[in-house]
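Long-time lurker, first post. I've been practising inverse folding by hand and with some scripts of my own, and I keep getting stuck on stretches where the structure tokens seem ambiguous. Below is the full token string for one chain I'm working on. Before anyone asks, I'm not after the true native sequence, just a reasonable design that respects the backbone. If someone could post their per-position residues I'd love to compare against what I wrote down in my notebook.
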């Protein structure tokens, strides 16, 4: 079984992935942020490093999805391969931070990879407003994220909403994180767990 958590930067994906993995006894697979050799460079010089960063993420997530399917385990994944291709890369291209040539090369590679992997059995999308994202990003205090602009986050949010609106690869659960605090409020977490339980019972 493969569950994936999607959402913009600062939406709470990693935290929710941890909490769900603990509760349901799923194996968590996290985004490769710590060992990513391009992330810091990218945030300082987006145009120069955008293609390198996106290829790194694509490779990392493709490998992850293959491992998930081969493992036969119940796994929850922090961010999906689709978000890179439908949100981050096209956004960089639209902002003039990735050349047409690089974007076409990237898109072609993604299409090939997508044809070889199965989508998650269920996608959990964390919907968030910009003020909430900004607040969460400041709270966690990652140096390289200090330069993220409101405009950049807004563009990503618009693309997330457009992607989710047409998502049809499997079960979809949308959680509005503006009005809940699943970290500090056990009742809020309980509500999410109940919703996931209900969806899963319909899955199997």
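-- Answer (accepted) --
I ran through it position by position. Result:
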């Amino acid at each position: 079984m493969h569950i994936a958590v999607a959402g913009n930067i600062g939406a709470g994906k990693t935290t929710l992935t941890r909490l769900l993995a603990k509760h349901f006894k799923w194996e968590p697979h996290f985004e490769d942020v710590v060992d990513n050799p391009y992330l810091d460079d990218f945030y300082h010089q987006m145009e120069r490093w955008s293609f390198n960063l996106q290829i790194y993420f694509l490779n990392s997530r493709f490998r992850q999805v293959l491992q998930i399917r081969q493992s036969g385990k119940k796994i929850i994944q922090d961010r999906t391969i689709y978000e890179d291709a439908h949100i981050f890369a096209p956004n960089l291209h639209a902002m003039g931070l990735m050349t047409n040539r690089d974007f076409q090369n990237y898109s072609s590679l993604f299409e090939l990879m997508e044809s070889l992997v199965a989508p998650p059995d269920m996608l959990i999308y964390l919907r968030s407003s910009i003020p909430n994202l900004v607040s969460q990003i400041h709270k966690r205090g990652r140096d390289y994220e200090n330069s993220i602009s409101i405009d950049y986050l807004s563009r990503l949010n618009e693309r997330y909403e457009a992607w989710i609106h047409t998502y049809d690869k499997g079960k979809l659960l949308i959680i509005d994180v503006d009005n809940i605090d699943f970290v500090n409020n056990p009742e809020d977490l309980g509500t999410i767990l109940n919703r996931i339980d209900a969806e899963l019972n319909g899955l199997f």
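A couple of notes from the structure itself: The longest helix spans residues 46-71. The radius of gyration is 17 Å. Happy to go over any region you disagree with.
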